[in-house]
Backbone:
């Protein structure tokens, strides 16, 4: 899994494994796909229905906004006004109120629930936390934030659906008006968000930089922190260096950027798995491949030079077993975190490709 900033990734894994109770997760629509729709597919369906209902705007213009990842909330507002309350509710139920089994849950979300983190916030409306959480979570919405706060104070694991649950239409947040009515004017929800975002380090999963939800949340967080830098993390597949740089400067967010290998983004499940796995078992925390070495002696020399710099005083031995390159080492770390860093240093030494051991 090519990661732009290995040091940042290593830092997060080490911090999480040392103090998992200080972290919480913020889950976006990407973690529920393809079982449930993301923003673009939902809005395109809304535009189609709204156009049939008498949308007072140019359909193609709205489609262009969606395809560019722009003005999602405003497009949703326009469509809801054209469709009407009844039609809007029918559409949301059609998209999100459907039966599914635990095996249907996307891999990354399943991995996350299998970790059993104490706090999950989500902007999703679906029932994955109830099904995948196997009844272990206290699940609430913006309609019962006080109950969620009490559960957290008692140490119960919770999932807070800040944008509502599909089975409670009064809790649904989709449009700009919904944000004003349900989030900004709801004292209990704002207090809960303020408390959690100020006291926990959040890991954002399933969001894109064009997702309006993450913008609204982080703008709110900037207000809470009086424009101080935000120490939260987000796993992002965005490849635009300009967008990444702008986002970091705007919010001070720690972005862990990866390049997806296919449309299912299996790297997200790998990332979640890494947080909960012994460092020696992380299957993807390799450095991005930067060079090709196709001579056995040069590989040994390269690894010796690299490991002598990155593992400190740890002793190691490199040998060839048939076509398998093996490394053993004696850790000098006194804590689990220190030993994990040594293991990661060895993993990250393999930042090259070779055909010598390909048979």
Residues:
């Amino acid at each position: 899994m090519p990661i732009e900033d290995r040091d940042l990734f290593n830092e997060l894994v080490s911090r999480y494994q040392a103090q998992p109770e200080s972290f919480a997760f913020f889950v976006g629509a990407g973690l529920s796909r393809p079982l449930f729709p993301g923003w673009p597919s939902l809005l395109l369906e809304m535009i189609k229905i709204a156009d049939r209902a008498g949308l007072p705007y140019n359909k193609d213009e709205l489609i262009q906004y969606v395809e560019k990842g722009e003005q999602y909330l405003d497009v949703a507002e326009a469509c809801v006004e054209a469709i009407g309350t009844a039609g809007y509710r029918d559409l949301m139920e059609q998209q999100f109120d459907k039966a599914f089994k635990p095996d249907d849950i996307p891999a990354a979300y399943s991995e996350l629930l299998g970790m059993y983190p104490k706090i999950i916030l989500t902007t999703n409306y679906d029932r994955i936390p109830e099904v995948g959480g196997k009844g272990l979570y206290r699940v609430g919405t913006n309609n019962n934030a006080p109950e969620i706060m009490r559960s957290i104070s008692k140490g119960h694991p919770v999932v807070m659906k800040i944008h509502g649950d599909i089975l409670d239409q009064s809790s649904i947040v989709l449009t700009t008006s919904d944000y004003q009515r349900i989030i900004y004017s709801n004292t209990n929800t704002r207090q809960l968000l303020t408390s959690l975002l100020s006291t926990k380090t959040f890991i954002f999963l399933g969001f894109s930089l064009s997702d309006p939800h993450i913008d609204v949340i982080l703008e709110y967080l900037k207000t809470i922190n009086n424009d101080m830098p935000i120490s939260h993390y987000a796993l992002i597949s965005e490849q635009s260096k300009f967008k990444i740089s702008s986002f970091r400067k705007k919010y001070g967010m720690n972005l862990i950027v990866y390049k997806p290998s296919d449309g299912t983004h299996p790297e997200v499940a790998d990332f979640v798995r890494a947080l909960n796995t012994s460092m020696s078992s992380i299957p993807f925390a390799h450095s991005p491949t930067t060079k090709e070495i196709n001579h056995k002696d040069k590989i040994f020399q390269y690894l010796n030079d690299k490991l002598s710099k990155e593992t400190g005083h740890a002793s190691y031995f490199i040998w060839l077993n048939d076509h398998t390159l093996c490394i053993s080492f004696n850790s000098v770390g006194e804590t689990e975190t220190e030993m994990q860093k040594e293991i990661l240093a060895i993993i990250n030494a393999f930042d090259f490709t070779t055909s010598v051991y390909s048979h």
